[in-house]
């Protein structure tokens, strides 16, 4: 069997004929294999959801236990027979529970990356490259301009600003799933052991992370606090930093933790005083290195700057094409 026969693009999303399932479908289907819990990959309404135990827990927390007629948790690294294919979920390093979907049938192997990063993250298992014939890769930051700095350097910049401005609160815009928990864990690793304050929208998933064994230290919801938040660190969804919620904070330094903060104009447009280039996606060098590591001769590119990465693949003698799947709106602020 050719590797390209393992996957095909349909209106519902990426279809795997030998397994009889869709991978990260864009609309409800009978059977969905889901790479991770972000809403542009995990949508409610499918009859059956197959994912890692962590992603199942996150999906149920976000959408409720009745959002899927049935769920099946597949531990990472454990092969599962599904139809005429063997499916294995392998860590993707994106957020807690994120996984690549490895499809094997007829002597061929395809890997669907979902979203991934190569940088170390204390809140999730690291990415594991898988040799394959066909590699479906994301390209959120698939342009050479995107090269992410070490996260420790960005955390050091944040803490230096906190020390230099003790009369102000530092308010960080961070996506509710993955980015917020990673920022908290990186702050703990850098020695910040004080209470970190949260917008209410971040509390639920931080609680899920704690239940799944990811320690985040002392957290408290921002309620009526005002002057007592001087010198403290507050996390909230990016949208909250420009609404009434932020007005209760004492002279906040508006920060944003995102790979998009590499683009100065984007930071300026969003009123960000302290941009922090912290991404949960692979940068250009990591994308190209990963493609090389897989040894895949056929590469499908989706979710981002598809054309640039396809051109790079062509220069390497690889057969590449863009998939132009719908989605990624939920992660625009990441």
UniProtKB/TrEMBL annotation:
GO terms for molecular function: RNA endonuclease activity. SUPFAM superfamilies: Metallo-hydrolase/oxidoreductase (SSF56281). Pfam families: Lactamase_B_2. NCBIfam families: Xnuc_lig_assoc. Residues 22-141 form the Metallo-beta-lactamase domain. This is Putative mRNA 3-end processing factor.
């Amino acid at each position: 069997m050719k590797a390209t026969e393992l996957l095909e693009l349909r209106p519902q999303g990426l279809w795997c004929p030998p397994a009889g399932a869709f991978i990260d479908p864009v609309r409800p289907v009978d059977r969905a294999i889901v790479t991770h819990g972000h809403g542009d990959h995990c949508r409610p309404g499918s009859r059956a959801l197959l994912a890692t135990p962590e992603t199942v827990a996150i999906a149920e927390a976000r959408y409720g236990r009745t959002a899927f007629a049935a769920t099946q948790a597949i531990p990472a690294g454990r092969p599962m027979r599904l139809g005429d294919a063997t499916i294995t979920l392998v860590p993707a390093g994106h957020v807690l529970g994120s996984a690549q979907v490895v499809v094997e049938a007829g002597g061929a192997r395809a890997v669907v990356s979902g979203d991934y990063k190569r940088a170390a993250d204390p809140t999730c298992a690291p990415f594991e490259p898988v040799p394959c014939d066909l590699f479906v890769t994301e390209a959120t930051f698939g342009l050479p301009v995107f090269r992410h700095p070490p996260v420790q350097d960005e955390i050091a910049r944040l803490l230096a600003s906190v020390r230099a401005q003790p009369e102000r609160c530092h308010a960080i815009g961070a996506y509710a799933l993955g980015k917020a928990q990673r920022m908290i864990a990186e702050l703990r690793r850098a020695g910040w052991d004080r209470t970190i304050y949260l917008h209410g929208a971040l509390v639920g998933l931080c609680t899920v992370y704690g239940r799944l064994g990811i320690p985040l230290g002392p957290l408290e919801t921002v309620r009526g606090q005002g002057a007592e938040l001087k010198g403290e660190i507050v996390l909230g969804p990016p949208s909250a930093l420009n609404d009434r919620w932020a007005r209760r904070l004492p002279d906040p330094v508006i920060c944003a933790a995102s790979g998009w903060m590499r683009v100065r104009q984007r930071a300026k447009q969003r009123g960000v005083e302290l941009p922090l280039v912290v991404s949960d996606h692979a940068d250009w060098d990591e994308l190209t290195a990963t493609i090389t590591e897989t040894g895949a001769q056929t590469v499908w590119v989706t979710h981002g700057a598809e054309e640039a990465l396809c051109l790079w693949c062509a220069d390497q003698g690889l057969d590449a094409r863009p998939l132009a799947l719908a989605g990624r709106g939920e992660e625009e602020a990441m």
